[in-house]
Amino acid sequence: MKKVKITVMKMACYQDLIEKYENPIEHACDMKIGQVFIANGWRKPKDFCDSAWDSISPFVMTLSHGGEDFYNGWMKNKKSAMISCNDGFRPVSFLLETLDEDAD
């Protein structure tokens, strides 16, 4: 299995949807743009958001096992994917990239 680099690329916040539909919450996300996590094979990185992991883990699993070229040429780098978490109010976009290093 290969390691997979996960980089926080963008974060959005749809205040209009939050005000209209979301119950108030005090804290939603600890991610920061440019933050990097390394998935050791298919294992969730320490301190990575559980909900975001649920969204990206199938792609991490595929990349870590040598899969590539999602959706027939969607990404310029066939050993990568751009995946967002499933938070409809404040989605975070992650760039997933297969590393040449093997997972422990």
N-to-C SSE string, H for helix and E for strand: EHEHEE
Residue-averaged pLDDT, rounded? Answer: 93
CA-CA gap between termini: 8 Å
Helix/strand-derived category reads alpha+beta
> What Rg is obtained from the alpha carbons, in whole angstroms?
15 Å
Helix count, DSSP H or I runs of 4 or more residues: 2
**Sequence of strands across the biggest β-sheet:** 2-1-4-3
Total strands: 4
Give a verbal description of the structure.
With 104 residues, this protein is α+β, with helices and mostly antiparallel strands. The protein has one domain. Helices cover 21% and strands 29% of the residues. The chain contains 2 helices and 4 strands. The protein has helices at 15-21, 50-64, and strands at 2-11, 36-39, 80-84, 92-102. Strands 2-1-4-3 form a 4-stranded antiparallel β-sheet, with helices on one face. Strand 3 and strand 4 form a beta hairpin. It is elongated and about 45 Å long.
Task: Supply database-style keywords.
104 residues, alpha+beta, 2 helices, 21% helix
How do the strands and helices of this protein lay out in sequence?
Layout: E1 2-11, H1 15-21, E2 36-39, H2 50-64, E3 80-84, E4 92-102
Antiparallel strand pairs: 1-2, 1-4, 3-4
Can you give me a brief rundown of this structure?
The chain is an alpha+beta fold.
